[in-house]
Amino acid sequence: MSKTGIQFASTIVRGSYKGSLGCGQGGLLPFTQGRLFCSLKWKGFEDENIGGKRNFQKIKRRGRTTKTTIKSSILYQPSILCPEENLQKDSRLLKLERRWNEEKSEGRGGGEKLTKRIPIKIEKMDLKKEEEEEEETKFDEGRRRRKMEEEEEENELERHLRLGKEFVLKLRENLRQSGEQQRKLKDLSQYVREEPLPKLSFGLLTFLLNGRQVDLSRRLKPFRGEGGNVGVLERGFNQDKKSLNWTKILLNIQSANAVPQRINNEPMQIYLVCSLKGQTQITSISDGHQPNWHETLIFDIQLNEEEDEETILTVELFDREIKPFEGDDREVDIRHERVENRWLGFGQILLNSKALNYWTKTKLDGYLSLQTPLFYTGYNLSSNEEGLPTTLRIRLSVERQSFITRLSASEQLQENTLGETDLITTECLKLESKLRQRFPNRRIISLAINSSGRRIAICKYLREINPPIQIINLFNSGQNKKAVKLACKMIALIPLINERMEKLKEFVLPIWLTVEEVIRIGFACADELALVLCCWLLGLKLNCYILLGSTLSNGPNSSFVLVQFSDEEQWIIDPTTGHHYSPTNPNCPQLSIGTIFNNKNIFINIQNDEHPSQLNFDFTKKNNWENIFCLEKLSTTTTSQALVSIQSEYLQYEPLKEISSSFLLELRTSLERELRLAFDETRPFAIPQWNLLASRNLREFLSDLFASNFFDDENIQQQQQKLSENYLIEQHLKPLLSSFKICLISFCLPFINKKQIIESLLRLKLQQNSHSKTQFALAVYLKPLMGSIISCSVVICTLIPIV
Question: Taking every annotated instance into account, which residue ranges of this chain make up the domain C2 (predicted)?
């Protein structure tokens, strides 16, 4: 290059300027042309030329220790011979500059990272694909950066809970992968087969062959038939991964039941806010206590299998109240009003791959149970006589391509997983395969996998276990139903975890942890919550069962608990929310029931109906229920061995030693500070004024409210006198009631991290209060329940001065 140079030419016409001749003027002057000679120098050559020889090793060592200056751009300014707009339009040059900046920021060294090659010709570059890859890379880097920042800011308890959740997810993933690898292993008999020898006398053959030995070897042939096509019932082919990830969610909202009513019986204006992956849609306003919408909301989302966050559809219930401006001195003939949105509850629908495939095939009207506040000033949260929870009637349908495959009966019967005896496993899986062909959409399960990877009969997960002492004391006092309600509240405060089902197949065996493992780790799936609750109720000597089926909130993997009291009353309990329903209630959120089991037997629903309100729960009728352990092939000895529980007999419910009173005080203080900061940042009207006296009184209110709801004190009779929230408010906020008009709302949820609490607080939309003189008060109450499980109660109120 230094000898020949780079030849260049230009057709740009330049006029004479300050004595210069110019170029290309009307044929008088030629265009600019010539050769450009460049000189290349080794970095540090002028200092390291010893005896006329280049000491490359010394230069290399010096380059590692010294800090060299790097130019700010890939191009030197004197070498730019064209307008800058042309450089901005050159996609290849932009790619080179972007790669240059990345290498400069990362500090390339030693060839640790391979340089991405860029084609010389623009025609060979797939610009659209490269732009998509760059967007994905930037998104992944931003998500990784945010995750690192969150991990740096979390405290010891948040780190413990996060590691516990990651451990559970990793355990399930490893068990799934190991099971899939063992399932794919095939025996030699599955590949080749031997031709049977003819049934002739070998002595006669030897005599006919004059004493020569008969060659008994025969040619092996490849196996063809049913055995060679194991597990290929339904397969999906990914042709366009980008387009196939798009999913259309159709949410038809019909009506609401048992909505909290205003105490003054004023007309209500109810509407719903639905949000999914950054998209928000609002329904129209329905007047009255029994709202009806019959509206369809459509969400077009793109699912990414590599995302850590779960895809959840959130539905929130609001009541719009129109109020006049206090002290409005504007035009008399014009009416000025302000709007207040009252948050009355929310519900969530999990949308992982398995749930989406289920809703693609199944389109049913279901009920979504809403979590309502603990207390809200001006509303009667238990307006109905039976105390039924608030539910929404929703029809959910999904338009997407299904890729989850089905396991055939031969795959399920492969002896590749350690566990129960061959007879029990074979009979259970044969019965499952038989009934699944008859009822393909029902959840029919008889075996589960424990944390060690062993197949266990689901009956062995149940055992009589003593619940916490608060439940036992309340049950011994003769209040059986209140004790069951208290157990439901405590179970609902265990954080819920959902298994990632992207690459799993249908009808795979579920992975269940024991009660001891759930309490120690602090996370559980819906099935494990039902197991813990059922074991507690069995410890109270109550007759109870676990119902396996499907719901609107958890899709095809849901579990409820059926309990029978001594007065023959029956409850169906949702362990994820703590709500209970009557078996004859058509508003029960459980859409279908496939399997019911207790600690003695497994019953599979063979009735034509699926909803609990349409089923006959008389398990002695063989026309309605198929019993697993009543099969003729299973003897009494085999059945008794299969019913030996794997649960521990005694459990410790003490909180972790690290959760001390000083730690809780520090956590509560920092949480309140961050809640106020987030509230201030999202308030659009004015700087909030925080009433410290009211906040101090609200902490005492939360403490007494928690004690009355969870019977924290030993004197139960004294706690029963404090069940009225209005009494607690008058007792703790009495000095402020004469000066302020107070509106208070409180909610309770399990503590996972601060981000979750902040999102729940901002969901109330109290920061959008437009009253200029409004004051706010906030308080947090943390109470450890068992292990690493902590209940977090939050209360916030608005105080408007009384003029």
Answer: 229-360
Per-residue pLDDT tens digits for 320-366: 988 877 655 666 666 677 788 999 999 999 887 778 877 777 777 88
Is the predicted pLDDT of residue 722 greater than 50, yes or no? no
Whether the pLDDT of residue 668 is over 90: the answer is yes
Full domain range(s) for residue 531: 423-643
* Residue 536: per-residue pLDDT: 95
The DSSP code sequence of 686-752 is S--EE-HHHHHHHHHHHHHHHHHHHT-SS-HHHHHTT--HHHHHHHHSHHHHTTEEEEEEEEEEE-S
Helices (H), 259-352: none
157-163 contacts at long range (C-beta below 8 A, 24 or more positions apart): 157/658, 157/659, 157/663, 157/667, 157/751, 157/788, 157/790, 158/752, 158/753, 158/754, 160/656, 160/658, 160/788, 161/495, 161/522, 161/523, 161/751, 161/752, 161/753, 161/788, 162/753
pLDDT of residue 409: 42
Fill in the DSSP letter of residue 458: G
Would 77 be classed as within a structural domain? no
Helix 480-492 and helix 692-710, axial crossing angle in degrees, nearest 10: 130
**Alpha-carbon span 425 to 626, nearest angstrom:** 16
pLDDT at 155: 75
Closest CA to 364 of 609, 546, 131, 140: 609
pLDDT digit string, tens, across residues 383-438: 444 568 899 999 988 887 654 444 444 444 444 444 555 677 778 888 888 888 88
Longest dimension (CA), the chain: 129
Q: Does 147 reside within a domain?
A: no
Among positive and negative, which fits the CA dihedral 658, 661, 666, 672?
positive
CB 395 within 8 Å of CB 364 = yes
Looking at residue 633, its amino acid is: K
Whether 301 and 256 share a structural domain = yes
Residues 387 and 449 in one domain: no
Q: What is the SS3 assignment for 151?
A: helix
The model's pLDDT over 43-57, given as tens digits with 9 standing for 90+, comes to 444 444 444 444 545
| pLDDT above 90 for 574 | yes
**CATH number where 519 lies:** 3.10.620
The verdict on 388 and 491 lying in the same domain is no
Distance in angstroms (rounded) separating the CA atoms of residues 87 and 13: 21
The separation between the first and the last C-alpha atoms of the chain, rounded to the nearest angstrom, is 88
Q: Are residues 252 and 365 in the same domain?
A: yes
Same domain, 634 and 673: no
Q: Each residue of 450-468: b (16+ CB within 10 Å) or e? A: beebebbbbbbbbbebbbb
Same domain, 591 and 626: yes
Q: Is residue 656 part of a domain?
A: no
Sheet bearing 375-376, strands edge to edge: 375-376, 740-750, 789-801, 775-786, 689-690
CATH of the domain at 712: 3.40.33.10
Same domain, 603 and 676: no
Of the candidates 769, 783, 779, 717, which has an alpha carbon nearest to the alpha carbon of residue 741? 769
| Phi and psi angles of residue 320, each rounded to the nearest 5 degrees, phi first | -90, 125
pLDDT exceeds cutoff 90 at 687: no
Distance CA 81, CA 615 (A): 83
Q: Could you please report the per-residue DSSP string of 344-370? A: EEEEEEE--HHHHHHHHH---EEEEE-
pTM across the whole model: 0.75
What Cα–Cα distance (Å) separates residue 563 from each residue in 197, 472, 533, 568?
62, 17, 10, 10
| 670 and 701, same domain (yes or no) | yes
**How do residues 186-226 score in pLDDT, each as one tens digit?**
555 555 555 555 555 555 555 555 555 555 555 555 555 44
Residue pointed to by tokens 């000095």: 735
The torsion of the CA quartet 527, 533, 534, 537, rounded to 10 degrees, works out to 180
Number of domains forming the structure of the chain:
3
- The pLDDT of residue 718 is 44
What confidence category does residue 26 fall into, taking pLDDT thresholds of 50, 70 and 90? low
